[in-house]
Amino acid sequence: MATPRSIPNTLTIAGSDPGGGAGIQADLKTFSALGSYGTSVITALTAQNTRGVTGVHPVPAAFIAAQLDTLLDDIAIDAVKVGMVASREVAETIRDSLTARRPRWVVLDPVMVAKSGDTLVDDAGIAAVRDCLVPLADLITPNLPEAAVLLDCPVPTDRAGMQAMAPTLRELSAGAVLLKGGHLRGEACPDLLITADTLEWLEGPRIDTGNLHGTGCTLSSAITARLALGDALPEAVAAAKAWLSRALEQSHRLAVGQGHGPVHHFHAWW
């Protein structure tokens, strides 16, 4: 566990994005920008750019286990973020490794639905995430379509619908849930933090930008970094949300690709 004088170690378990806007690359940039030392375990190689994904090459579960075991044998991890997991074997591998050498914080970003609305994992993959990884997590960070997939229900279209999801989301046995409201219409992007005892709305403006690639990865890794640095959960979520808003506001300074560009992870530095 990190002391107040040490730089904490953070871990991302996710896929690789050659364009650098999402996945492992976005997580490592976020960890670094917020002052933690980033480590990584790669679960898949992808061929993608700002316009889309053209190929995915999954890493075998046995090699994911080897990466995790070798890393955790040597480096004390303060907080871990888990991204997209598409098979039960990989979900079980991650669960077993993190249970054996559990970091203080586990944040799960259940990536299941693309921005196009397409479901990225099959029913077996959804069940694996729900059964193996959600109960392991101190926080899960689904957007509205992902929460609907987890609960097998319609996607909410307003705040009342988001709040109505809270009891069932609690039943998934995660420590807490950050239900992201970016898919709602309007000028605001309200998120709902659901804990065992409270419901807390976190308000934020909708940033007028098309540079939305990797925002989910970036937010969850920002929360992970803030938790590793010593924030309590509500403060970590609020700080990460504010930091992401600034990264979106400054994304126009980048000229990356011809599609949905990335946020500016290092907006405070350059």
TrEMBL record:
Domain Pyridoxamine kinase/Phosphomethylpyrimidine kinase: 17-264
Enzyme Commission number: 2.7.1.49
Highest taxon, organism lineage: Bacteria
Pathway(s) where this gene product acts: Cofactor biosynthesis; thiamine diphosphate biosynthesis
Primary enzyme class: transferase
Keywords of the record: Kinase, Transferase
Pfam families xrefs: Phos_pyr_kin
GO molecular function: hydroxymethylpyrimidine kinase activity; phosphomethylpyrimidine kinase activity
PANTHER family assigned: HYDROXYMETHYLPYRIMIDINE_PHOSPHOMETHYLPYRIMIDINE KINASE THI20-RELATED, PHOSPHOMETHYLPYRIMIDINE KINASE
Name by which UniProt lists this protein: hydroxymethylpyrimidine kinase
Source organism: Halomonas saccharevitans
